[in-house]
Structures are given as structure tokens and as C-alpha cells.
Amino acid sequence: MYNTKILLPTETNIELCAKELFDGEVIAFATETVYGLGANIFNTEAVSKIFKIKNRPPDNPLIVHVPSVEDVRDIAAYISDDAYKLLYRFSPGPLTLILKKKQSIPYIVTAGADTVAVRVPDNKVAIKLLTATGFPLAAPSANTSTRPSPTCAKHVMEDLNGKIKFILQSEDDCQFGLESTIVDMSGEHPTVLRLGSLPTSTLLDTLPNIKIASSIENGVLCPGTKYRHYAPNIKVDYVAFNKLTLSSLTKIYHNNKNTVILTHDEVKLDLTNFEHINMGSIECYAKNLFSIFRECEKKYQSIIAIGVSDKGIGRAINNRIIKASK
Ligand code: TXA
Ligand code: MG
Questions:
Q1: Runs of H (alpha helix) within 143-245
Q2: CATH number for the domain formed by residue range(s) 235-325
Q3: How remote is the CA of residue 141 from the centroid of ligand 2, in Å?
Q4: How far is the CA of 305 from the centre of ligand 1 (A)?
Q5: Per residue in 144-183, pLDDT tens?
């Protein structure tokens, strides 16, 4: 058991975390999407601690984080022109590419696969930490498996208190609030495997031949997507935006005890007679979804989350709510 501490992102604390990582420890750190739980990719014992701490199934591979686009070359055996296009346009940022792995990347990181997930986070503290260590960090989201991903240090503490030494904060914690978008660039056709903070419509502007896996809402594309995910400890009901009516909502509401409706700016219904929380704009909904899940489980027995229209980041929000409702 550790006495887990939240660290401000001072130069001294970043150095301290880099040293701990060098010594084979596991550290939580902020990124622009969600908090990550990092370990040196070349230290298999350290990487195995990640799986243990998170209670993560060993067949679920990890994302490798590097400080710059140039560093992706040390991870991937081959980077196609299209992959470079995406990298130069969207990295650093909430984009993860699946590429053929270099031999030097240990199989524990990729869960036995010959491909590797890699991304350059767009967060100053994360980049400083990666630069200070001098080695890439394998980092899944810093939650216990199945729980909503953490978007502030307090969430990491809720799940991992006593299990890690340090949580490295940043001034601009997780401004997106949903995980990175994952694109498989290792095969013949670029394919989106996980919806995320980078909207697929934006990706399509750069690479019009990109496919969105047709089963993305329900299928098992990333090994991780077959598990229950992003879920608070209470029941979640999803109501699709295009199926929303006051009568259907009223029915679900009265079927549930001690429930709350998550609504947003696109919803024009009068909800004054219902316990509800307005999540605001689509961007705010994405940013605060996981945090609201965690708050609601302390006060309510269930959540009715109204989905959004599928444009922009909307589809990723719907995806997370649907996963949490299963
Ligand atoms: O925004 C993010 O991506 C955050 C921050 C911390 O960077 N990380 C994150 O990691 O969401 P995690 O482990 O919670 O989700 C990674 C997903 C999993 O569903 C995993 O199965 C998939 O990426 N993945 C990793 N390597 C893969 C590979 N070689 N092929 C297919 N899917 C892979
Ligand atoms: Mg995760």
C-alpha cells in the first residue's frame, strides 16, 4: 500500500515522477483526453503492474505515448504516407494510430499483437514527463477497469488510492474529457476502431478513404471494446436524441426510482418537473460526462442520459453512454 499523493506539475515533481518511472514504478498523469496510468514500455515488470493495478484483462493492449511525432518512428516498423498525413495533421492531439510494431516493443504492451497503438498527447506536463524519462510510456486510462475514465486527479484517487505513489496533475486537465480516437493504419484500409475526441468528420477531411468500422457501436474492434466500459456503479439508460419524446422520457423516468436525467442544449423539452442536469453544449457534455457519472453515483440510483445528434464529437458521446448502459 502506498500513501498516494497528488502532485502539482512543478519541474521538481516532474523530475521526481520521471525518476520513479525509471525505477519501474507506475505513475498517473494528466493528458488532454483523460488521465493515463503510465509505465516504461521496456520494463515488462512495470507494465505488468498496470494490468494488476487496474484489474485489466491481459488480452487488452496498451497505448504507447511518445513526446513527438518523430518518436513514433522508434515504435512502428512501418508508417505509410497516409499515416504520416494523419500524424502531421493531428499530433500532438487526441489521435491514436495502430501501426505494425517494431520488434523492440515488448509483447506485454501489445497483448501479443504484432501491431502497436501509439499517440502523442497534447498536454504540456505529459510531454515534459515523456521528455524527462527519455523512454515511451504505456498508458491506459487511469481508472479501475469498467469504471468511467478519470478526468481529474480526484477521480484517479477514488479508484487507485493506495495502489500508486503519485498522480501528476496539470493546469489544463483533460480539456476533451473523452479518450482519443483510434485509427487502424496497419492494414490496407485506414479504419476507425474507437470513436473519440477527434471527430471522424475531421479525420475524413484529411483522409477521405478512411472507413468507420460499421460495427463500431456494438462490435469488438479493439480488444478493449468487448468489455463493459465507462460505467458508473448505478444503472444508466440511454435515450437516442432522434427518438426522444416527452412521453417516452416520462415513462422511463417513472419506471426508475431516484433517477436523474442528463439533458443538453439541443433538447428543447420542458424538464422542470423532472430531476435533471443540463450538460450544456456538446463540447461540455463530452468534457464532463465521466465526471457527472461519478458524481451521480453518489446521489442517485440511476441515470437517464439523453444522447446527442451524431455530428462532430456527438457520436463518441453516444458511444460512451451506450457502453455504460450495457
Ligand atoms: O485518450 C486515450 O487514448 C487514453 C489516454 C490515457 O491516452 N488512453 C486510453 O487507453 O484510453 P485505454 O487502454 O483505456 O484504451 C486503449 C484502447 C483499448 O480498447 C485497446 O484494446 C486498444 O486501445 N488498443 C491498444 N492497442 C491496440 C492494438 N494493437 N490493436 C487494436 N486495439 C488496440
Ligand atoms: Mg480505458
A1: 153-160, 200-206
A2: 3.40.50.11030
A3: 4
A4: 25
A5: 999 999 999 999 999 999 999 999 999 888 999 999 999 9
CA 138 / ligand 1 centre spacing (Å) = 10
In degrees and rounded to multiples of 5, residue 232 shows phi and psi of: -75, 175
- Cβ of 32 closer than 6 Å to ligand 1, yes or no, is no
Q: Is the pTM of this model over 0.85?
A: yes
The fold adopted by the segment(s) 5-212 is: DHBP synthase (3.90.870)
The protein residue whose alpha carbon is closest to atom 7 in ligand 1 is 36
Query: C-alpha grid cell for residue 141?
Result: 486510462
User: Are 5-212 and 235-325 in the same CATH fold?
Assistant: no
How far is residue 137's CA from residue 47's CA, in Å, rounded to a whole number?
9
Arithmetic mean of pLDDT, 213-230: 68
The ligand with the least distance to the CA atom of 120 is 1
Q: Where are the domains of the chain?
A: 5-212, 235-325
Which amino acid is it at 231? A
The pLDDT assigned to 151 comes to: 98
- Residue 233's region, left for phi above 0, alpha for psi from -120 to 50, else beta, is alpha
Spatial distance between the Cα atoms of 76 and 305, rounded to a whole number of angstroms: 39
Kindly report, residue by residue over 227-286, the tens digit of the pLDDT: 667 889 999 999 999 999 999 999 999 999 999 999 999 999 999 999 999 999 999 999
Computed over every residue of the chain, the mean pLDDT equals 95
Ligand 1 contact, 141 CB (< 6 A): yes
